[in-house]
């Protein structure tokens, strides 16, 4: 952890830690949240870096150059980071915080989910629609069920797929756009890395949005 800025008391529960230790963690399996100090898999966290003008930039893919600042993917943790100067301490100096940072993260995560679903569709690993989805379920080809967040709860429950991971991170219009239609309520994804990635991004989105995760595993 880092030393506090001159004249600034450290946040309760915070302790300083050498920079090289923090950087070394970026090569390991776990990341440490700069607010809670808890460590967890990077798939459950959000990475931030400093831009050229020292603006805080969310690095949702975890690939931008620079020393990463990691937050647990939770809306309340993000708000604490913004209100308590956690980014400034982690960056060891002044930073610029976009006023719409939370919205940028949520929009970026939704875009990542759409992109992953698009990859799965083009690879023949995802289908949409009641009939096609049910056929995959019955044939044992399903690894993940994605349903529209604004779809009828009764219809979503009637679709079935108990025992399979499921999530509802996008609206029917957003899901439909991925599959070239006006709307889609039911999507089935084959088991594999893409299904795992979609489920992880849905979890991060639910956490940042501060809503009850519409996810079943």
Automatic annotation (TrEMBL):
Please name one Pfam family that this protein belongs to: YlxR
Question: Could you tell me which residues belong to the region Disordered?
Answer: 1-31
Cross-referenced InterPro entries, in alphabetical order?
Ribosomal_eL30-like_sf, YlxR, YlxR-like_sf, YlxR_dom
Residue ranges occupied by any YlxR domain in the UniProt entry: 31-106
Q: Where is the composition biased (Low complexity)?
A: 1-16
The source's domain of life comes to Bacteria
Q: Which Gene3D superfamilies match?
A: 3.30.1330.30, YlxR-like
Output the NCBIfam families linked to this UniProt entry: PRK09190.1 (NF006622)
Report what the protein is called: RNA-binding protein
């Amino acid at each position: 952890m880092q030393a506090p800025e001159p004249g600034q008391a450290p946040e309760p529960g915070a302790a300083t830690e050498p920079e090289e230790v923090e950087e070394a963690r970026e090569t390991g399996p776990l990341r440490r949240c700069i607010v809670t100090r808890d460590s967890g898999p990077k798939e459950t966290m959000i990475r931030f870096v400093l831009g050229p003008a020292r603006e805080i930039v969310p690095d949702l893919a975890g690939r931008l150059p620079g020393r990463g600042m990691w937050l647990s993917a939770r809306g309340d943790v993000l708000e604490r980071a913004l209100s308590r100067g956690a980014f400034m301490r982690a960056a060891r100096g002044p930073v610029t915080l976009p006023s719409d940072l939370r919205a940028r993260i949520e929009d970026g995560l939704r875009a990542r989910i759409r992109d992953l679903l698009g990859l799965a569709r083009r690879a023949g690993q995802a289908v949409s629609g009641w009939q096609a989805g049910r056929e995959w379920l019955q044939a044992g080809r399903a690894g993940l069920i994605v349903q529209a967040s604004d779809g009828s709860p009764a219809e979503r429950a009637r679709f079935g797929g108990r025992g399979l991971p499921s999530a509802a991170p996008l609206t029917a219009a957003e899901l439909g756009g991925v599959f070239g239609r006006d709307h889609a309520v039911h999507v089935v994804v084959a088991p594999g890395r893409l299904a795992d990635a979609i489920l992880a991004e849905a979890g991060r989105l639910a956490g940042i949005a501060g809503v009850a995760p519409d996810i079943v595993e």
